[in-house]
Amino acid sequence: MGRSHGKRSNTRDKFAKPFRRHGMPLPCKYLATYRVGEYVDVVADSAIHKGMPHKFYHGRTGRVFDVTPRSVGVEVNKEVNGRIMVKRIHVRTEHVRPSRCQQAFKEMVRARDAARRAARAAGEPKLIHEKRQPAGPLPAHIVEAGTGGLVHLEPKPYEFIC
């Protein structure tokens, strides 16, 4: 006999909650505010069956396009036959959390703007390095020999035994 391929098939581990995190969601899940254009992560909460997204969208990041009293409309990219389509899904707020995908970018922009303001206040014309720079080599330093001094290591000479 064949097996079924229902909406929640193969989700035993995917929808499982972490250790000691079982049960209903906390009130902060319901008090969160989502605005159109924000990035959110779609993470299905297995304790809430209403408004649960399909298992494909679990763990996906999308952009909010619609906000209703109890749900959020999210645009998520999905690959279909080799092309990427924008799928629009409505998900209850229990199955959504704010995404941190732009956190590093926003911190970099804040730091850059603060540096610009400081340079402008100091009278400097413009910052030279506004783009992110890779981490350079470590600065030079002197290696101290221990109390026993340096030890010269070399391999033992080869001896032919016949």
UniProtKB/TrEMBL annotation:
<protein>
    <submittedName>
        <fullName>60S ribosomal protein L21</fullName>
    </submittedName>
</protein>
<dbReference type="Pfam" id="PF01157">
    <property type="entry name" value="Ribosomal_L21e"/>
</dbReference>
<dbReference type="InterPro" id="IPR008991">
    <property type="entry name" value="Translation_prot_SH3-like_sf"/>
</dbReference>
<dbReference type="GO" id="GO:0003735">
    <property type="term" value="F:structural constituent of ribosome"/>
</dbReference>
<keyword id="KW-0687">Ribonucleoprotein</keyword>
<dbReference type="InterPro" id="IPR001147">
    <property type="entry name" value="Ribosomal_eL21"/>
</dbReference>
<dbReference type="InterPro" id="IPR036948">
    <property type="entry name" value="Ribosomal_eL21_sf"/>
</dbReference>
<dbReference type="GO" id="GO:0005840">
    <property type="term" value="C:ribosome"/>
</dbReference>
<dbReference type="InterPro" id="IPR018259">
    <property type="entry name" value="Ribosomal_eL21_CS"/>
</dbReference>
<keyword id="KW-0689">Ribosomal protein</keyword>
<dbReference type="GO" id="GO:0006412">
    <property type="term" value="P:translation"/>
</dbReference>
<dbReference type="GO" id="GO:1990904">
    <property type="term" value="C:ribonucleoprotein complex"/>
</dbReference>
<comment type="similarity">
    <text>Belongs to the eukaryotic ribosomal protein eL21 family.</text>
</comment>
